[in-house]
Amino acid sequence: xxxxxxxxxxxxxxxxxxxxxxxxxxxxxxxxxxxxxxxxxxxxxxxxxxxxxxxxxxxxxxxxxxxxxxxxxxxxxxxxxxxxxxxxxxxxxxxxxxxxxxxxxxxxxxxxxxxxxxxxxxxxxxxxxxxxxxxxxxxxxxxxxxxxxxxxxxxxxxxxxxxxxxxxxxxxxxxxxxxxxxxxxxx
Length: 187
Description:
Keywords: Hydrolase. The chain is of the alpha/beta class. It has five helices and six strands; from the N terminus they run βαβαβαββαβα. Helices cover 37% and strands 18% of the residues. The longest helix is centred in the C-terminal third of the chain and has 23 residues, at 164-186. It is globular, with a radius of gyration of 16 Å.
């Protein structure tokens, strides 16, 4: 059975991620990438957004995934992973999550380790979530944490078209999964 690298699942935040956003750039780097498209990306409805992630995965068919979420999309991804511990998402990258308290959603999110390996990237001056809050959520979810410094909300408006650290994360995650597959079949 030939190995197929995990595909990339892009999960944008509120108002989607336009063509100048780093998520659109990252999606363009991988022909097998899929984007979660919300029916109304201007309405932050956690349950609906999390369910849309599940539907996108079901329509895409079998296989493993690496999820890359931004802002409110991070909250939807965390909820999806809590609701679906058997999700085909093998690793998750949370970039500049939105503060759950701004939406009254802190209690609706998991307060425990998520079922897959994850990393959370934050900023020291993100208007949507403080670095201290980002570190707390990363700890709750069992995610490794990196503060990129005073770089705003890590979006197009903050100057992030390309985000090489996101592509590096994808490449490293794919390499980890290929190495695991090779090791598993070598036994």
